[in-house]
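We emphasize that the prediction below concerns an isolated chain of 208 residues; any contacts that depend on oligomerization or on bound cofactors are therefore not represented. The input was used exactly as deposited, without trimming of termini.
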Amino acid sequence: APKHNAPGTDWITTVSSFSAEEVKERNEIRSVGGRDPFQKDLDLIKILLNDTGTNFLMGLRLLLRVLENAENVTANQEKALKMGIGVWTRLQQPIEDARLMSLLSSLRHILSSTRNLSLVLYPLRTLAVDSEIFQQISRFIISLGEPALPSLINTLEAEEERGMRKKLCLLITSITQETGEDAIMERLAHSSPFLLRNLIMILGDAKN
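Result of the prediction step, given as a token string:
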């Protein structure tokens, strides 16, 4: 069973539907006793990201390529996603390097994809809104800004559980308050009656 919220575990580690032990087992090639080629790629990326300058940029490019691979199994995608979240959260300050700015923009959009956000959102289902981990995950999602809204709105439209819909509405409202209403307004014309009601409520809450 998933091991969320274990003592001493940071919130990035909770963004996983597998335990750390399960992920490790899936990444071992038992027949040859070696490391999974995917894990070797992540090991190289980790070394590069721990460096500076050109090596850091190379590591970030490699990480973006891995994150964009639609063929990644969930366990591998989660490991790459945690690395991406780590980079994003560390670099929330003014950036002057044009190359790094471009790569971070790409990272923002990749982290905002429906697949990646669904993995980030998973732990929120069992967390109280006022819990520290919920607040930490929320701050990360909100930091992605407007690029996260399409995925959040799509998730809201498909969500069946009332409590999770409320949490999604809170996230969408917070982002809308910071980035403006344009993304919500554009979606109104292409919404089901159910989603339309929720978006109108979000617009009202965002103004208050």
